[in-house]
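dumping these here so i dont lose them again. two proteins, back to back, each one seq then structure tokens. dont judge the mess
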Amino acid sequence: QVQLVESGGGLVQAGGSLRLSCAASGSIFSINNMGWYRQAPGNQRELVASITSGGSTDYADSVKGRFNISRDVAKSTMYLQMNSLKPEDTAVYYCNAVVRRLRGGNYNYWGQGTQVTVSS
């Protein structure tokens, strides 16, 4: 099996920063695309940022210039540095990864989510 574990969420004031981490473990041959999603109460889950195995990144317009996604391939870990946080960034943040398992096949996995709350 494969597990994705997020950490780094919490409560921060507007204008502050947080760094989320997502560590993958289990029967992993390689990790392809990874991404961070978020879901606020009453809203659909939305893509915040994504990163390919080659390091190419993409961001939602609402976070461009404020958030930075990165990954450490050797550690099977992805990060999301969030700066200049706004109350509208408040949501549960989920890690997502497309993993090629040791037994073969590509599978989509989700973490359990971590709460980010930005106070005004």
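---- next one ----
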Amino acid sequence: QVQLVESGGGLVQAGGSLRLSCAASGSIFGINAMGWYRQAPGKQRELVATITRGGTTNYADSVKGRFTISRDNAKNTVYLQMNSLKPEDTAVYYCKVERNILKTVIESWGQGIQVTVSS
């Protein structure tokens, strides 16, 4: 089992910044991709950004140029720097970790952290 602890959410005014962190512990062997997803009220969960162990990143079009994902492999931690925040970024943000074990991809999700952007 992988335990994921998210931090850094909160309330910020439009145009402001927040930095989310997600630290993985427990059965961390085989961690490859780490990422952030979000779910706004009444909407489906959507991808925000992902990063592979080698540093390859992928972003949703809605956050390109504003958000930056990074990771510290030594600390098994992934970060999401969010700049120029908009009210539509308001959502619960979830950290996800993928482990490759014997050709099987095992996903683990964090509990979620609230990000609220006021206009």
